[in-house]
Amino acid sequence: MESFxxxxxxxxxxxxxKDVVGDELKIPxxxxxxxxxxxxxxxxxxxxxxxLVPVEFDKxxxxxxxxxxxFNQFDFKGGxxxxxxxxxxxxxxxxxxxxxxxxxxxxxxxxxxxTCKPVRVKLVPGGWRFAKFMDPTEKIYDEIDxxxxxxxxCASALYYHFRMVLSNGTNFLARYDRDSSKIxxxxxxxxxxGLPDLNSFHMLLFTFDGYLKFDISAFDANMFEIVFPxxxxxxxxTGELAVxxxxxxxxxxxxxxxxxxxxxxxxxxYMSLCSMWGRNDYIVAYNGSCSWKLQVKRRNLWKRTTIxxxxxxxRNDLDLKAGDVCVFESPAFSINHFTVSVISNSPGQANR
Length: 352
Prior knowledge:
Elements: E1 5-6, E2 11-14, H1 17-20, E3 24-26, H2 29-35, E4 42-46, E5 52-58, E6 63-65, H3 68-73, E7 81-86, E8 92-97, E9 128-133, E10 143-145, H4 148-154, E11 161-165, E12 171-177, E13 182-184, H5 187-193, E14 203-208, E15 213-219, E16 234-235, E17 240-241, E18 244-251, E19 264-266, H6 271-274, E20 280-287, E21 290-299, E22 304-307, H7 311-317, E23 325-331, E24 337-343
Parallel strand pairs: 4-8, 11-15, 20-24
Antiparallel strand pairs: 1-21, 2-7, 3-6, 4-5, 5-6, 7-8, 9-14, 10-13, 11-12, 12-13, 14-15, 16-17, 18-23, 19-22, 20-21, 21-22, 23-24
InterPro entries: B3_DNA-bd (IPR003340), DNA-bd_pseudobarrel_sf (IPR015300), Plant_B3_domain (IPR050655)
GO molecular function: DNA binding
Keywords: DNA-binding, Nucleus, Transcription, Transcription regulation
């Protein structure tokens, strides 16, 4: 269920008993304001198994329609959490967390109109999610308990140290204590964001990659993702610059501007960086308050690396022109997250 392009803020719907016997869900107004013009009137919600949920979007009301059969097929009772992810194109990715706050074991099925076979969901690739709701009676500053259901699924893959990556690409080191089943080190997150504790958030969503990394998304009381200030090399509210550890440049060529661009090569000058990516991997590029997930592939005996899916959205959203130079920079321990700046080739147009 890998998707590439513009990364819109996630939103979460906690299903009520009334929801699961109905056919509609309301989308957060903040999401509709920012992305409503991009969303088509008909599209699919895509689950990790390949299961497709056909829905219609009522732009005027900000409502998704056509969910009743999906709720019935999955036998939802209320209390389940639906995590919506949008990458600026046609469909949404959808993941489901149970009432135990851990991602569910998905039924191995596809919808009746589909002819493909379902994909068995594994920890790798794709990761596994859990949610942590903030308790207003308990200040959370440094440690978080892991849900039992998440431990039952992922404990054997948990090491003692992890990188925690925030929505702006900044990261910090955390530790896992097997005896207490807690992850500690969140004081670093508080320091990066200039917060006394984590209780200003309503919920944190963690995505474990199955190796040594968790992605963290924070949500407000409306269950809309909070986009943190900063970028991988400009930390949080302080704006402190991190030391650049890795970088590469791409000079935009005329053929990169074609309607269908089938790949943008990264120069072999940066082979030492590219060799740290998998054969089919991704990077996330941050500019201002926006980020894009870009597919990177290595081929020709792993000597040539190319940006594939996501480039066209990245190019269009940044209004790139032939001759512009995109500079990608990342700090240490962050080979997949880059701050991108654009050196303009157009007279009178500012760099960005």
